[in-house]
Each structure stands twice: as structure tokens, then as C-alpha cells.
Amino acid sequence: MSTTSPPRAPEKVTDARTQAKENRRGRGRARGLAERPGFFVYGILLALFLGGSYPLWWSYVVGSSDNTAITETWPPLLPGGRFWINVSEVLSTVPFWQSLLNSIIVSTIITTSVVFFSTLAGYAFAKLRFKGREGLMIFVIATLAVPTQLGIIPQFMLMKELGWTGTLGAVVVPTLVTAFGVFFMRQYLVDVIPDELIEAARVDGANMFRTFWNVGIPAARPAMAILGLFTFMTAWTDYLWPLLVAPQNPTLQVALSQLQSAKYVDYSVVLSGAVLATLPLLIVFILAGRQLVSGIMAGAVKG
Amino acid sequence: MTTMTSPPRPDTGPAKKRSEPNKAKLTRRQRLSRLDVKASPYLYIAPFFVLFALIGLFPLIYTFVVSLNDWDILSGPGEWIGLDNYVAELNDPYFWNSLFNTMSIFLLSAIPQLVAAVFIAAVLDQNLRAKTFWRMSILIPYIVTPVAVAIIFSSAFGEKYGLINNILTSFNIEPVMWKSEVFASHFAIASMVNWRWTGYNALILLAAMQAVPRDIYESAALDGAGAVRRFFSMTLPSIRPTMIFVIITATIGGLQIFTEPKLFNPTSANLGGAHREYQTTVLYLWDMAFNRGDFGKASAIAWLLFIIIVGIGLLNFAISRKIASTEVKVISKRRAKKLARYRATTAASASTTGAPAATVVDEEKRS
């Protein structure tokens, strides 16, 4: 393993150790290039990659075979040809397309609401002056750590009282705003918009909302995308609440779990369902995986 | 466009005011503008606070009210019984069982996960080729939803034909009863959490590692600190705040674990195993509220768990501060000592003339 020089500032590296090492190895790498890690490091990464994706691959392999595959003594590596047959079994057991549509509707509404209200509140906390700003912000931070999921009993009673159980409205309501969203947007906007820009817009005669719309939103866009991506993920993966309030009008996760509760469990069908349900996110990942990675890393530094 | 977008006021434009139109208009506009400046911030934060109060905070507080009543799902609110539900739960072995299971699964997932995530982050924190590819590759498990993870792993951990037991048998190892033994089931459930979240946390820690200024490492390397030494005495302390963040998030999430144990063995008679081997507290809460219909007791469970989560969060915070402050003390003590010694030697050298500076360096190295 390399003992190394800093990846981030390659041009600075001229330290004696690196050079000595290079000389010892007799490798004529150009001076000023940071040392690349050796094969060992790539070996570890490759092992992590293969090990990390194997469970998913395994479900595809079993999901594309008949139900004897799971009994094989040595873990199977190659897929069979029955994936679509198993998938059609899935489609006839649970309302897959309806639940997919439900999940898309639910996640989109939640994401839009969280992103919009968080940006609005985050902008106010970051850039506007008003009485009680500090106190209210502390309140938001304090609620970050509050497990609101534990309020499910009154939430459930409320949905029942309103007659909303079984509807997507009930699924959406409890997560329309999050304290994390407000905190995240505030942290981002506080540095990113210069006060002068807001003042200039005000001097030009824009009212407060117009200033927010024309100055705040454009500046907030990258953070809004990140927040949107994660809110969407969270809404998409949620299971407890949709299972409780709308099992008869299931989201994708609820429908997927219903596959498992059949009396006779055919693992190849269940696993093909799991793979099928993962496909939408896999596509998102292939298209936006880079943003997901940088989003997680940005969130870490800011949060 | 200006503040004139706000709705026209009813008292606008009586003929008498025409005498001084400019002045009147200006003041009105100013007044509106001032109102806009004063009210806007509150209007912007209001949707969040109103909605949050309604759907987040109020239910949590109302849970406490419910917990003080004998409250059944069908008959609704019964009589006020004070803390009886709490007393009943604290004396209920099933409650303690669920708490034990939750903590056990939490520790089995949080500790190995943190260690692995730090390791992976350190591996990624190098001058890699195709680094975006490697970063993305460790994130693949994250896109598999918990329900799908639970389905995949509960098949893999099947007792008769599961992947894991098949492998074990082919090595002539006795198959493990993953779904009926306490520790084995906790291990299996923890492995689901670990699989999904390790890469995600590794990326968070990687971001923290990359924020450490590189020239510090360079000068440490020049001073002869090896990679391991640099990792333990420089990298780890500088990513501590992020580690605390990861731990606290893991605590809040981990103590509310539901999906994985719920779907681990759907054919089991009880929620969370035939003999509640892996019934976690939220699962127990669910069972109490929606299967047994006792909202009062279920609410008491929710509040007890709430107190535990907040308590552990504060404990994490306090411990991390303690570590940080003792570290600062140790460092400043060392510095003070060095300074004193340096002064003494320079004073001595001043009197004896020409004592080599090297002694100072030696002294410092020894300390």
C-alpha cells in the first residue's frame, strides 16, 4: 500500500520519501505527479465492489431461474432464462404498475413540497433579518434529532378521523416538511448569496418575494437538487407509514412486501420482484449516481 | 415591478387626496414596503412551522396524552390512568426483550459499520484512478430499498435452502438457524443494515477526510510519521465531528429499526420471530398498537423509546465533547512543558553561550 502523498495537491509533491521510493522502484514517473496507489488498493476496492453488488446479482440469478436454484449447494453465478416468466408471475400476484405509479406520485409530491418549503424557510433564516430568528433556528436544529416517526399513533388516529386512510393523501401528509431540509438549505444559502445582491435587487424595486424568486431560487438550485434527490429516495423507500395507512392502495415497497406473504413462497418469483422493484432506482443511479455521490459528500461537509 | 403588486386597498383614491397625490402615494408605498419587509420572513418560515407543528410535533406530544389513558383502538379514549401504562410496560418482559433486541442489533450494525466505513473511506482517500467510479461502486447497495434488502437477505439467510447455509454446508459447517436463534437472527438483521449503509457512511467520512488540509500530512510525512501514524493521530481526530454526526444519525435510525425485522420471516406466528427472538421495540410498538389495539400502552412504549433515543443522542454528544476537551488539555499541557523547557534551555545557552539548538530538538523528540 502506498504511503503517500496527498492526492489533492499533486503539483506540490516533491518530498524526499516519494522520490526515494520512486528511485528505489526505478520507475521513471514524471516529477510532480502524486503517487498512484498500488494494485493492492485497487484489489480491495474491486473486492468491495464485487462483494457489495453480489447480493443484488445473486437475487437476479435466482430470480431468473426456477425455484430449484436457491437449493444449489454452491452459490450460483450465472442467470437462468426465466426472469420474464418470473416477472409475469410477480405482475399477476401484486398490482405492480399501480403501486409503481403510486410511489411516483407520492415521492414527487413529497419532494416538491419539502424542497419548496425548505428553500423558502432556509432563505429566510439565511438572508432575512427578523425578530426571533436565532431562537427559531435553534428550535429547527433541536428538532433534527427528534424521531417524529414515534408519533405514528396520533397520526394514524388523525388520518382515520379525516377518513383519509387508504388514500395517497394520508401517505404523503406526515412528510411534507422536514427540519433537515430547512437546516440544509439555510446552511447552503448563508454563504452562497452575497447580501449585496439582495440589496441591489431591493434597490431596483423588487419586492421581497420577487427578490427570493429571482435571486434566492437561482442561487439555491444546486442545493435544491441535492435535497430533492435525497427526499425522493427517502419517500421512495419508506415502508412503515404507507403500510399502516394505505395497505389496500400500496406503494411499490408495500406491494413488494406483499409478494413475500403468499402462503407458498417461491423465492425465484419473490427475488425477481425485488430486482424488478430495484430497476427504477438502478436507472436513476446510472444517470445521476455522480450527483448522488457528490450530494452525500456535500451534505456531510455542510451538515 | 414594485410593491404595487399587493392588493389595492379599499381606501385608495378618494378625490380629496388628489391635491397631494405624490406624497400620499409615496407614503402608502413606503408603508406597504415596510410591511413587506417585516412580514415576509415570517410568511416564508410559516409553512414549515405550521406543517411541522401539525404533523410532527403535535402527534408526538399527543402520544404522551394517549399514553396516560386507558385507550383502546376500538372503544377510543377510556379513563385517565396516569403513569400506569408506563409501569405496566416497565414490568413487561416483552418490552425489555424488545429493547434488548434493538440494542443488540444496533450495536452489531453500528460498530462494525463505523469501523468498515472509516477503513473504506481511508482507502478511497487516495489519488485513485477513476475515483468517481469507485465511489459510485460502493454506493450500489444504497439504492436497494430496505424492503428489497430484507427480501434478499431473508432468502439468503433461509434456514433450509438459504445461500449462506448452503455455503456453510459445503464447507462442512453445521447450518445456522438464522431465524430461530437470538444471536444468529440479530447478526442476520444487522448484516442487512450494514450492507446498505456502510458505503453511504464511508462517503460521508471520505468528504471529511478530504477536508483535512493536505500540507499537514506532507509536513508530518517529512517529520517521519508513517502512514499508520498519520492516520491515527491526524486523520481520525480531524474527522471526529463527522463521526459523531454519523453515529448520532445511525442511533436515531438504528433504534427505530422496523422494516428489516418485520420482513425477516413473514411466516412467523409472532411479529419478530416465533419467540420474539428479533422483535425490536418499534415492532413491539406496532404489535401493541395495531394488532392488540392497545393505543395507551403503545404510546407509552413510543415515549419510552423517544426518551432512550434522545438520551443516547445526548450521551454521544457529551462523550465526544469530553474526548475533545481532554485532548485539547493534553495538547496544551505538552505545549506548555515544551515551551518551559525551551525557555530554560535558551536561557541556559544564553549564559553558557553557544549551546547547540539541536539539544532542544532532541528534548522535544524525547517528550
UniProtKB/TrEMBL annotation, chain A:
Ranges of Basic and acidic residues composition bias in the record: 9-25
Which family, according to UniProt? Belongs to the binding-protein-dependent transport system permease family.
Recorded protein name is Cellobiose ABC transporter membrane protein
- What's the main place this protein lives? membrane
Annotated segments matching region Disordered = 1-30
Source organism per UniProt = Salinibacterium amurskyense
InterPro entries in UniProt? MetI-like, MetI-like_sf
TM ranges: 39-57, 100-124, 136-156, 162-184, 223-244, 264-288
The record places domain ABC transmembrane type-1 at 100-288
Please give an example of a GO cellular component term from this record. plasma membrane
Where found in the cell?
A: Cell membrane
Keywords on record:
Cell membrane, Membrane, Transmembrane, Transmembrane helix, Transport
From TrEMBL, chain B:
Task: From the Swiss-Prot or TrEMBL record, state where the protein is found.
Answer: Cell membrane
Instruction: Cite a single GO BP annotation.
Output: transmembrane transport
Which residue stretches belong to region Disordered? 1-25, 346-367
What is a single Pfam family found in this protein's UniProt entry?
BPD_transp_1
Keyword vocabulary terms for this entry: Cell membrane, Membrane, Transmembrane, Transmembrane helix, Transport
Q: Where is the composition biased (Low complexity)?
A: 346-359
- GO CC term (a single one): plasma membrane
Kindly give the membrane topology term recorded for this protein. Answer: Multi-pass membrane protein
Q: Which residues cross the membrane?
A: 42-65, 103-124, 136-157, 239-258, 300-319
- Its principal location? membrane
Q: Does the keyword Transport apply?
A: yes
Q: Give the matching PANTHER family.
A: ABC TRANSPORTER PERMEASE PROTEIN, INNER MEMBRANE ABC TRANSPORTER PERMEASE PROTEIN YCJO
Q: Which family does it belong to?
A: Belongs to the binding-protein-dependent transport system permease family.
What protein name applies here?
Cellobiose ABC transporter membrane protein
Organism of origin:
Salinibacterium amurskyense
